[in-house]
Design a protein that fits this description.
This protein is α/β, with parallel strands linked by helices and 267 residues long. It has one domain (26-262): Uracil-DNA Glycosylase, subunit E (3-Layer(aba) Sandwich). 34% of the residues lie in helices and 9% in strands. The chain has helices at residues 26-29, 36-42, 50-62, 99-102, 110-121, 159-176, 188-201, 239-244, 249-262; strands at residues 87-90, 142-145, 182-186, 217-220, 229-234. The longest helix is centred in the middle third of the chain and has 18 residues, at 159-176. The chain is globular, with a radius of gyration of 18 Å. This is Type-5 uracil-DNA glycosylase. InterPro entries: UDG_Type-4/5 (IPR051536), UdgB-like (IPR044147), Uracil-DNA_glycosylase-like (IPR005122), Uracil-DNA_glycosylase-like_sf (IPR036895). It comes from Actinoalloteichus caeruleus DSM 43889.
């Protein structure tokens, strides 16, 4: 049984998290969850990282001027997509005025505009944009998640915050393992974070660990009777990468199509 403790009502959150119960440390809770739906419900109650809690709630209280009339989510953002996904797309962390505002991965910011437009062209998304939950967007055999589920200051989580958050991602991949065939990782931070998670979930990661590259493609054999997992790399869809031309929309689409092919997601 999952044990919850009463929330700290003195934190001054301006988001929708006020009044919710909070979980103990992720390492104690995540392994007990029995399904993706339960994971998505419990994860937003986490308050394990004080710096991230303070930042996400401050952003939700102060808001950006363009969104001053909106109620910010202001909590950890769970993964988005079906519970039986064949492909997982792994980012870095929610954006302060994107996922931290809307409550959905890569939703409401420029990175999401690039990612979901490319997913739509690759046949993995039902529409080319992601505005807010309830906008009709669905993903085809694909789930989008991240190694850190709270928006970090300057988009830079610390290694300690990454490690504290890891049990959520580890449990997510364990639950996806029966259907998962491929993982596309956006950026080097996510790549380093996901390797130990995949090892814990039942795939053999070679030594030395494979290095991140935009065109990286590594096949990880199963440590049990399951099938292999294809691990692919792509530069992160950050505004810096897309505005400088390091990463074009076509490059993102190409990597998504390559991942969909090895995941056996029919066009």
């Amino acid at each position: 049984m999952l044990t919850l403790v009463a929330p700290d009502m003195t934190n001054g959150s301006g988001g929708q998290g006020g009044g919710m119960e909070e979980t103990p440390w992720p390492a104690a809770v995540a392994p007990t969850l029995t399904g993706i739906d339960e994971l998505d419900e419990v994860l937003p109650t986490c308050r394990a990282c004080p710096r991230l809690v303070a930042w996400r709630e401050e952003v939700a209280r102060v808001k950006r001027a363009a969104f001053r009339d909106e109620e910010y989510w202001g909590r950890p953002v769970p993964g988005f997509g079906p519970r039986d996904a064949a492909l997982a797309v792994v980012g870095l962390a929610p954006a302060a005025h994107g996922g931290n505002r809307t409550g959905r991965m890569f939703t409401g910011d420029r990175s999401g505009e690039v990612l979901y437009a490319a997913m739509y062209r690759a046949g993995l998304a039902s529409r080319p944009d992601s505005v807010r939950p309830g906008d009709g967007l669905t993903l085809r055999s694909t789930r989008v998640t991240s190694p850190v589920h709270c928006a970090p200051p300057d988009n830079r989580p610390t290694p300690g915050e990454r490690d504290t958050c890891r049990p959520w991602l580890a449990r997510e991949f364990e639950l996806l393992a029966p259907t998962l065939r491929a993982v596309l990782v956006l950026g080097g931070f996510g790549w380093q974070a996901v390797l130990p998670v995949l090892a814990a979930a039942g795939w053999r990661v070679p030594r030395p660990r494979p290095a991140f590259a935009h065109d990286a493609h590594v096949v990880l054999p199963s440590a049990s009777e399951g099938g292999p997992l294809h691990l692919l790399g792509c530069y992160h869809v950050s505004q810096r990468n897309t505005s400088t031309g390091r990463l074009s929309p076509g490059m993102v689409e190409d990597r998504l199509r390559a991942a969909a092919r090895v995941a056996d997601i029919a066009e």
